[in-house]
Design goal:
Elements: E1 2-4, H1 6-16, H2 27-33, E2 37-38, H3 42-51, H4 58-67, E3 71-75, E4 81-85, H5 89-97, H6 114-127, E5 133-134, H7 135-146, E6 153-157, E7 160-163, H8 169-174, E8 179-184, E9 187-191, H9 193-196, H10 205-220, H11 225-232, H12 236-245, E10 249-253, E11 256-260, E12 275-278, H13 282-289, H14 293-296, H15 301-304, E13 311-315, E14 318-328, E15 331-338, H16 344-360, E16 364-369
Parallel strand pairs: 1-10, 15-16
Antiparallel strand pairs: 2-4, 3-4, 5-9, 6-7, 8-9, 10-11, 12-13, 13-14, 14-15
């Protein structure tokens, strides 16, 4: 059995996440290498992708997403909004549709029945078949196709109430009935993958699940079923059965069993090196996929960063601090709070990283070393 050190795992993940050096590939290739990019805050997703591309700005990411359509914004792992490679959407839809759904946090009489959910998902798909719609337009169309019950304002959300049918939007994305469309002014629009991606068709579920595990292991392996379950938000027992059904290779990392795709045991010869800035949700996804936390969050990082969704300072592949940015016009003020000493070389690399952040965001940077006083992102 192959034995790998945590140092080798860190170097391997930095390389595969295009963090050891910027990639010269297309945005879709970088996103595929990350097994998707969390996009609850789209500006953070643009920054996370742009930082991994050689010389890119947020405009390059937007072009790939809205003009070239090589990327698609939809619901992905954990039922959260993600940017995924358009070419891989059949796999994602096939796999996520076949994965166990987490229990709804809503209670009766707010929670929809399985039959109502199927009815709403079908109504969403039919409503988006011809054109992109804003949320208000989609609401009108769905209620017209299903009935007044779907439009009842009963779903708690952001100190207000949403119509009942909106609890099925994530499921509609997972099943390939909905994706995000380009903004209409300041309004978000929704679209249909079947219309914007000609020939789109969900992959066969069993094969798709195997492909998704291998996609995850390319990005985050070596890993174990419980970590995959945490990343996907599925039961650990189900993930263990899925891993057992696949042709995977077992390895050992610091005395712990983990798995990779057969033969995928190579790691860079050089030790992990470099200072990197990960934006909101990027650092969270790196954490969710890169368990165990005791190795990824050494020392003070465990108490300062682990339990919040902060923008993360990576030092040699592990969390070494946090950071925050505030934009004012064309200027961006970056505050970095290191939790370990920064040598002169690390400080110089941090300056370069701040310059890259500003380049991606098309702004002028100013760096301050000091405490980050804002909390983590919700």
């Amino acid at each position: 059995m192959t034995i790998m050190s945590w140092t080798q795992v860190c170097a391997r993940r930095l390389e595969r996440h295009a963090l050891s050096a910027p990639s010269k590939e297309a945005p879709a290739e970088v996103v595929a290498g990350l097994a998707g990019v969390h996009a609850q805050v789209m500006s953070a997703a643009e920054l996370g992708i742009g930082l991994r591309l050689d010389g890119a700005t947020r405009a390059d990411v937007r072009r790939a997403l809205w003009d070239e359509r090589s990327l698609v914004k939809t619901y992905g792992p954990r039922g959260t909004v993600h940017v995924l490679p358009a070419r891989d959407l059949p796999m994602w839809v096939g796999a996520l549709s076949a994965s166990p759904a987490p229990p709804s946090p809503l209670r009766d009489p707010v929670r929809m029945t399985p039959g109502q959910t199927r009815e709403v998902v079908a109504a969403i798909g039919a409503s988006l078949a011809e054109e992109d719609l804003t949320i208000d337009e989609l609401n009108e169309a769905v209620v017209e196709r299903t009935g007044p019950w779907a439009g009842e304002l009963v779903m708690p959300a952001f100190q207000t109430l949403w119509p009942r049918w909106r609890q099925a939007m994530g499921q509609a994305g997972i099943e390939g009935a909905l994706c995000f469309g380009p903004a209409r002014g300041r309004k978000v629009t929704y679209s249909s993958p079947r219309r914007v991606l000609p020939g789109f068709r969900p992959a066969e579920p069993r094969a798709a699940l195997g492909d998704l595990v291998r996609c995850y292991l390319r990005a985050y392996g070596p890993s174990a079923p419980d970590r995959f379950a945490h990343w996907l938000n599925t039961p650990s027992a189900w993930a263990a059965e899925l891993f057992a059904s696949l042709d995977l290779e077992r390895v050992e990392v610091e005395g712990r069993a983990a798995w990779v795709s057969p033969g995928d045991t190579l790691a860079p010869q050089d030790e992990p090196r470099g200072v990197r800035l990960l934006p909101y949700f990027d650092g969270y996804a790196y954490r969710v996929g890169n368990q165990p936390p005791d190795l990824l969050y050494p020392g003070r990082a465990a108490e300062r960063v682990l339990r919040g969704n902060f923008q993360v300072l990576l030092v040699d592949g592990v969390v070494g601090g946090l950071w925050h940015q505030r934009r004012s016009g064309r200027r961006i003020d970056v505050t970095v709070e290191p939790l370990i000493p920064l040598t002169a070389a690390r400080r110089a690399e941090l300056d370069e990283q701040v310059d890259r952040v500003a380049h991606v965001l098309e702004a002028r940077p100013r760096l301050e070393i000091g405490p980050v006083t804002v909390g983590g992102h919700a």
